[in-house]
Amino acid sequence: MENKWPNIHTKIHFVIMGLLAILFFVPAFANTNYDLETIESVSIIGTFEDPSNIPGSVTVISNEDLQKVIDTDIHKILSAVPGVFFRTEDGYGLRPNISIRGTSLDRSGKITIMEDGVLVAPAPYTSASAYYFPTTGRIHAVEVLKGPSAITQGPSTIGGALNLISTPIPTEGRGKFVQEIGDNGMTRSHAVMGGDNGTFGGMVEFHEHATDGFDSIANVGGDTGFQKSDMLVKLRYSSGDHEVTFKYLDLDESSEQTYVGLSQASFNKNPRMRYGMTQYDMMDNDGEQESITYKGSFGNVDIVLTSFSNDYHRDWFKVDKANNSKTGGVSNSINGVIEAANAGNAIAQGILDGTQATEVKLKHNNRFYGNEGIQFQVSTDIENHSLTFGYRDLEDYESRMQGYECFQQSASGTNSALYNCGTGFTSSNNRLRETDATSYFVQDTISMDRLTVTVGYRSEEYDKVENRWDDGVSGSRTQPKSGYINKKSSGDYSTTGIGATYDMNENLKLVAGFHQGMSPVFNGDAEEADNIELGFRYNKGTTALEVMYFSSDYANLVAECKNSNGGDCDPGDTFDGGEVDVSGLEVDGSMVIEGDGVSFPLALTFTSTDATFENSFDSDYFGIVASGDDLPYIPSSVLALSAGFIAESGWSGYLRLADHGSSCSTAQCGAFENIDSYSFIDLSIRKRMSEKLDVYGVLENVTDNEDIAARAPKSGARSQKPQTFKLGFSYKL
Q: Contact at 8 Å (CB) between 394 and 361?
């Protein structure tokens, strides 16, 4: 789809380049000791002079940490962060479902996700759950920020913020090359090439990841994996206390993934088999991102200014309905067929197994997204005050043109070629949504001997407009849908936060905070909650411990209907879940035991959570809810243990045990909507062959557990990724 705002984008870049030209060619500032690698990427936590004084729980997963178990699945990486929950879907983390402190985890739409400090969702206000997530295998480090300080990182500020830091331009050497091979035809290649002479720097990065997949397809066969590629280019110019970085990312993915889970009977028979009707399911997406970031110091004032744009397209062609004739009284929605099969309906199970002839309807979830904007942040110190002001102006959109195709499934399990569906099955949910949003925040960190107090204020203001078209008009926008002709809505929200840290002694710090949080909703009022936390941090030598109690009191939990939740609703519509209470305890501890020529790092992360509805109601999205019912997909507890060794000989290894408590896919938690607790163990081993060459091996899910890890849609069972082995090497260029 053509860029919707070429003039705005051109003007933004023109203004920034003009400012840069003035700054770089007037040699009024000079500081040759500036640390280029430190300032090259935007860190949301590094903006604080002393991160330990952040009034809230904070976790930084460094590049060194990421190399320990060589993860490419963001779900597994975040298992080391307390208060973070997730629902696996494909076993690879391609489209994550992440929750922070009990926020709705569907497509991670209720947390703020960034790359290098820039919002990562292609339409963060219009459609935050846009099925795009940065390729984790190329990410250099990860930051997670919770508590009052998270209001600087909106728009969603109830749970917290996740910032992914991209690969920095090499300042030593020329880059690196990583190559992996593994089970199921898996290959991964990661190359970084570049350098910096102190004035000019640049790099190009390639990341290619592919696999045939671990599931089989019944009756018809076929692969169930993916091919994913990223190319990232960075160029930087530095002059004294000033630098500008241009960043460009080109991405492409083709994955043979499905929404269709398994009936319980099918899961019990073979948890890693897909139905033959999913033969044609395919996700294709591509996109481009670019940004220009200026960073500079003017005496005691630091400035970060970024102009950014993002264009993204995805078409997830997947089974939407089966049994269009509603044979045997079975619903034609795919979740309805699975529900009927779970209830013992033989016709429904036959439709799934491919022994019952039926028509299957597939939908092109074909969508275009885009955003453009400018943001800046100014910070300074005045006596005992550290002041920061930030502003962002953004426009984004989501455009849907979603058609249908059909095929006939025979009683022998074979599938016909695709054909155009009959009358009434031509397209659905075609619409155009647009948002104009501005936001700003002010934060003051006040240092008073042992006490540090942080006060923050955030403002979000946005205007939205939506147009929908008649579902029966194939591939066109000639018939507007009544009630959705330039349907407008707006929001204007202000939130505040206050937090404090107190040094009991040089090792122990007390932490407390309160903040108002909100999450914007396209139609209707934003989701709002009051949040508190209370805890302590202990650091002494190689021992660290952080314990936090947290609570979120929702005035109105808001959910958006999506195909993935299987609700009896129209995708895109929103529903109010009323008052909700979420509270819990987070524990994050680590220590290193030193031996003779070898050290033993140990780490533990534990979260206990109680998340319940405070009112009773009946909803097309939530179903029948009684006061006291648990929120869907939020487990009562999550535990992660890590134990390793690092030897002077160059050998190192790690064991990771993760245990997820039980949860349900709905508040009512019917017989086939429960997800029992499950666990997995991963092992990794690495040998440093030289200063430049490392070789390693990883074994995931050592015991090959086959437990249910998710139900999506709500009645379809999905298993864990099976035992999988990979070998690789990393070479510094």
A: no
